[in-house]
Design a protein that fits this description.
Alpha-Beta Plaits; 4-stranded antiparallel sheet; 8-stranded mixed sheet; 2 domains; alpha+beta
C-alpha cells in the first residue's frame, strides 16, 4: 500500500502589547514562543479521517473519526460525562474547520484516499500559547489555504497569533481596514534576563474577552495612538526601569477602556517590579519585569509556573 506522510509545525504566541486594541488598528508587539504544535498527516486507502491529538507528555487526549465527504463525526472517544461533552465540542469544531477549508479550497480532501492525522502539542494546552492558532495554521499549510482566512471562518480574532505561528522572530502586527500588516522586528532587550512569564493558573477564553471589550462603544483614537507609541518605545527600550514604566502605563491605559482592575492591584499589589497582563485579562500569562528573580514571590502566592524570557521566546 502506498502511503505518504507530511509534517507541519507552528509556533505558539504571546501578545506583549496591544491586547484588545489590536482589533481596532493599534500596532501591537507579539512574539513567537519556543513551544508550539505539529501536525502529521499520513495518506491511507480508507476514505476516512482518523484524528488523534497528543498532549505535551505524549498522551492521546482526543481521538475521533470523520467521513471525508461531508466531515460527519463517525466516532469520538469519551471517558466520563465532562470529557464526553468536551470531546463532542472538539469533534464539531474540527468538522467546522474542515468545512471552512473546503470552501477555501474545494479540492481539499476531494480524493479516494483517507488520512491518519496526529497533532502533538509541546506545551500544556491550558497555557493559552495558541492551541487553536497553531492548529489552524498547520491545517492551512496541509490544505494549502490562507491561514488568516481560515481563522476568520472559524475562531475569529485579530490574527496576530497566526502571524506568530508563521514567524521565527518578534513582529509588529496591525490590522488596517481588516488587512493584517506584519513586520518582523528585532526585539532583543539587553535586560531580557530580568523578564519572566508567570502563569496565572487559569486559561482565559479570548473570544469571551473580545466580546466583553466590544460591548464598550468608545472613541479609541487617542488610546490607539498611545498603545502604538508604547509598542514602538518598548521595541527600542534600552533599560529595565524605562521598560517597567512602559508596562505600567500600558496597564493603566487598557484598564480604563475595558473597565477592569489591573492584575497588579487585584493579586500582586505588594510586588516590587512591574507586571503586565498578556492577551485577554484575567488568565493565561503575565509578563514580569523585575530586578531580582521573582520566582519565590510568585511560588509563595501559589503561582508555580515562572518561566524566564529566554526559555519562552523563540
Amino acid at each position: 500500500m502506498n502511503s505518504s506522510s507530511q509534517t507541519f509545525r507552528s509556533n505558539g504566541k504571546l501578545l506583549l502589547t496591544g491586547e484588545y486594541v489590536v482589533l481596532d488598528g493599534a500596532i501591537a508587539l507579539a512574539a513567537p514562543t519556543k513551544h508550539g504544535q505539529s501536525l502529521r498527516v499520513e495518506t491511507i486507502k480508507d476514505q476516512k479521517i482518523y484524528w488523534k491529538s497528543f498532549d505535551e507528555n505524549g498522551n492521546c487526549w482526543f481521538d475521533a473519526k470523520f467521513n471525508t465527504v461531508n466531515f460527519e463525526v463517525l466516532k469520538h472517544t469519551s471517558t466520563g460525562l465532562k470529557t464526553s461533552i468536551q470531546h463532542i465540542n472538539i469533534a464539531q469544531r474540527l468538522k467546522q474547520i474542515f468545512l471552512a477549508v473546503s470552501t477555501l479550497n474545494p479540492d481539499f480532501l476531494n480524493t479516494q484516499d483517507g488520512f491518519k492525522v496526529e497533532t502533538h502539542l509541546d506545551f500544556p494546552n491550558n497555557w493559552g500559547l495558541g492551541t487553536s492558532s497553531t492548529l489552524i495554521n498547520n491545517i492551512a499549510q496541509w490544505a494549502n489555504v490562507d491561514a488568516f482566512k481560515l481563522l476568520e471562518l472559524t475562531f475569529g480574532g485579530s490574527g496576530y497569533d497566526i502571524a506568530c505561528a508563521q514567524h521565527n522572530t518578534a513582529i509588529t502586527y496591525q490590522l488596517l481596514n481588516g488587512t493584517p500588516i506584519v513586520k518582523p522586528v528585532v526585539f532583543n532587550p539587553s535586560f531580557k534576563n530580568h523578564l519572566y512569564f508567570v502563569y496565572l493558573n487559569k486559561k482565559q477564553n479570548s473570544r469571551d474577552g473580545i466580546a466583553h471589550y466590544k460591548t464598550f462603544q468608545q472613541d479609541l483614537g487617542s488610546v490607539i495612538s498611545d498603545i502604538t507609541t508604547i509598542t514602538t518605545q518598548m521595541i527600542s527600550c534600552k533599560n529595565l526601569k524605562e521598560f517597567q514604566e512602559l508596562l505600567f502605563t500600558h496597564e493603566q491605559v487598557i484598564s480604563k477602556i475595558i473597565r477592569q482592575e489591573t492584575v497588579t492591584s487585584i493579586l500582586f499589589s505588594d510586588f516590587y517590579g512591574a507586571l503586565k497582563s498578556l492577551g485577554a485579562w484575567g488568565g493565561d500569562f503575565i509578563l514580569v519585569a523585575s530586578e531580582q528573580d521573582p520566582s519565590s514571590y510568585f511560588i509563595k502566592k501559589g503561582f508555580h509556573t515562572v518561566i524566564p524570557y529566554r526559555d519562552m521566546i523563540l
